[in-house]
Amino acid sequence: MYLSVIKVSVPVAEVVGVEEGRVEILPRKSVEDTDKDFTVFYVKRSSSGSSYGLLWRLGRIQFSCPSRVLRDQWTKHLRTALKTHSPLRPNRLLVFINPFGGKKKGRKIYHSLVAPLFELAGISSHVIVTERANQARDHLLKKDLKGFDGVVCVGGDGMFSEILHGLIGRTQQEAGLSENDPTVALQPCPLHIGIIPAGSTDCVCYATVGVIDPVTSALHIIIGDSQPLDVCSVHQASALMRYSVSLLGYGFYGDVLAESEKHRWMGPLRYDYSGTMVYLSNRSYAGIVQYLPADPLLSSPRDRTRCLSGRVYTHVEGRFRCVSLTCMSSSCPKSPLGLSPSAHLADGTGDLILVWDTHPLGFLKFLYRHTSTQDQFDLPFVEVHRVKAVRFSLPSEMTNEQKMATPFLCGLCCSKVPAKSVWNCDGEILSSTEILCRIHGQLVRLYARGIEEGAAVHNCGKENDKCQMGCTLIK
Ligand SMILES: CCCCCCCCCCCCC/C=C/[C@@H](O)[C@H](COP(=O)(O)O)NC(=O)CCCCC
Ligand SMILES: Nc1ncnc2c1ncn2[C@@H]1O[C@H](COP(=O)(O)OP(=O)(O)O)[C@@H](O)[C@H]1O
Ligand SMILES: [Ca+2]
């Protein structure tokens, strides 16, 4: 069903709201209350383009009718059409704002850019500004969630992770399933998650929407877009450690996170500073990686694998610069195509990236390729595997003391190299090194739609109109 107005065709699914009179919403609401007019607000794709996906803006069309009666009929029918046409449009949302995420602008972003759009769309929201870490997670685990269609987080990947843990935990509790059992088939979460980006990396938003833009994300929420997402569970023995969707990284990414936590005051820049320091400290770590390939056809009786828990895992052992597992591309503004550009959001698999120990310039080349369109896997010391599960352990020749010791991380000043790294799990440090990871297909749903056709990507990651490097358009 389409609304046609001389040159503009708007799918009803992309109508944001209908108001009587001549109405403006952003930057400030103004209403000229005329009898025969009404205003339709809709999703308008911005022509200025963006670094990956398309920017969405609030479009506005004014209609004039011959009579008030006709005007009222139009507005009534349009509002009914919105409800029946898009059943996933939320009516009521629970919103958590992390006031300390990213550049600490979460509250302002929500109140000035997002709340007016929710109001226009007739969405009622219950807003909680968090006062401590894990408040959102605990709320979702314990409080009454009746009447809410979805949960929105205003913050970064860490804040999204809180919502993820709260909703997955709550769903399993209600289904009577034990999250500590690594073999259990987890129940998908009924509530949708919306992300208003206001963090440092904002990778989950970028990889599922294609831009870091609060208005675009708010519009995806309003029209009830739905994007399923794979989730990786991380266990140690028979205890759940955490869930991950973007980056589960040992070695380089673990060290960068541990180092960056000391410099939180720098805001998002902490990752650039810590990345440089950790790169210069030139570390590699011993480890054993066992993985279950996603495609069973890939295994054969001669593939030198051994059987664990009745399933066939492939075994590799050695020294690694980094071991990373991601359920999605994990693209972000720093890396516009991501850690694994061809990874799928909802195919029930993850991509395991093994970067073997190599000389510092080789590793720099690998890292640098994340910022361009060059294939970061086309290097002799890099392997990538599509997997269903991964086990990581430390070599048996490491003493128990080395295995247990909390790794210390210093910059260039210290010549002592720690025997082990830490795991970066979507921006949180895991307390265990030896872990079992399993991918659960489509465990949660986001108010998003993946990267839209027609989105533009430059190999420098800059916006179309800002690209100064003669980059080629690759998509
Ligand atoms: C010579 C140039 C080197 C550039 C290297 C760029 C590599 C970028 C890969 C980024 C992958 C990001 C995966 C996302 C991880 C986030 O979940 C996590 C937490 O985010 P937030 O809550 O918003 O703080 N972010 C990180 O762990 C930061 C990794 C940065 C590594 C340089
Ligand atoms: N009120 C709060 N005070 C301190 N920490 C918080 C608060 N609310 C949430 N957090 C925590 O802050 C961490 C980082 O949040 P996030 O929004 O991801 O920002 P960033 O992207 O800058 O890391 C998350 O792990 C979250 O649990
Ligand atoms: Ca996947």
UniProtKB/TrEMBL annotation:
GO CC terms: membrane
One BP term from GO: ceramide metabolic process
Q: Which part of the chain is the DAGKc domain? A: 88-238
Q: Give the transmembrane region(s).
A: none
In its UniProt record, a GO molecular function of this protein is: ceramide kinase activity
Residues in the signal sequence: none
Query: Protein name, please?
Result: Zgc:158263
> What gene, per UniProt, encodes this protein?
zgc:158263
